[in-house]
Design a protein that fits this description.
alpha+beta; 2 domains; 5 strands
């Protein structure tokens, strides 16, 4: 086909190729984002004001959560490439996405707080963690958890509780037998007297 005879064909082909390339790049970036995410939340943001959006973004950035408006069709392709299933039904209307590669609780907790504050103007469509789509009650339970650091401290406290209890019980037994924890520890640490060598 001669470009001189059909100049409009050449002009239309160039932008289409450029648009396709841009869309492909967006899908690739989203796919990588899903693969690296420990958790993510899809939101219908249609009623949020500019001031509320600014405040939300500031809070998300402080917690190292990536937040952006996404195109539903491109997001479907990216989810499929990332191997995350069961979210196609929520990808309609206005959609934004909050993901975290670090703390999995942060995006769910922050978005859930804003959803409660703003009501119908800002709704959670769906959430996922480690590639698994979460049920509504799971979202609520995770949102109620403290942040990652506080959660680690809580888990560590739970792990140390039995050891602490054992130490208390052992201390009571030693004291009941007329000794003390310190003396018991000293006796245990002291080397045993050597038996005389046999002649």
């Amino acid at each position: 086909m001669d470009a001189k005879i059909f100049p409009e064909v050449k002009e239309e082909a160039m932008p289409n190729e450029k648009i396709l390339s841009e869309k492909k790049a967006i899908v690739e970036a989203l796919t990588e984002r899903f693969q690296n995410a420990s958790a993510g939340v899809f939101v219908d943001y249609r009623g949020i004001t500019v001031a509320e959006d600014t405040q939300l973004r500031r809070e998300l950035v402080a917690s190292e959560v990536e937040y952006s408006v996404v195109k539903n069709t491109l997001t479907r392709f990216a989810l499929e490439k990332a191997g995350i299933e069961g979210l196609n039904d929520v990808l309609n209307g206005t959609t934004s996405l909050a993901t975290s590669a670090g703390d999995p609780i942060a995006p769910i907790r922050i978005i859930n707080d804003y959803s409660k504050k703003l009501g119908d103007r800002f709704n959670i469509k769906a959430a996922f963690m480690d590639g698994k789509v979460l049920a509504a009650n799971e979202i609520e339970e995770i949102a109620a958890l403290p942040g990652k650091d506080a959660l680690y401290a809580k888990v560590l406290g739970t792990m140390l509780a039995p050891i602490t209890s054992l130490a208390v019980v052992l201390g009571q037994i030693v004291e009941k037998n007329g000794g003390s924890i310190e003396s018991a520890a000293t006796e245990e640490a002291a080397p045993a007297e050597e038996a005389p060598a046999a002649e």
